[in-house]
Amino acid sequence: MNTILLTGANGLLGFELLKQLSAQKKYKVFAITQSHIQNIETIDTENITVMNASLSDNNFINLLPSNIDIIIHTAQSNNFRNFPDKAIDIFDVNVNATMLLLNYAKFANAKIYIYLYRRCLYFRQSTFL
Description:
The protein is an alpha/beta fold.
């Protein structure tokens, strides 16, 4: 059975992927989320392990399985609308966590790394318009 690490499992993209993957019993999914996954009771969780962790905390990497086949990284900082006030959190989640996951992929022998990121433009509205 292939193993998948899915970040951002509570987000729009992540939850839709989680629903699709839960229906395909050929995958064991490790889903990372910062909070309880809303509507998780609407999907079959037999092949899903939910891990609560913040990607802004570098220690999240210690919770991950030692081997993984596929990484699907969909997480982004919840503070993306609060730039520049929350720039450190945005950097930690959107950049640093991505780097840590890439390094983890190497040591966990991942065969596939998929990075799905919504493009965002960070600006102060009053100075942009």
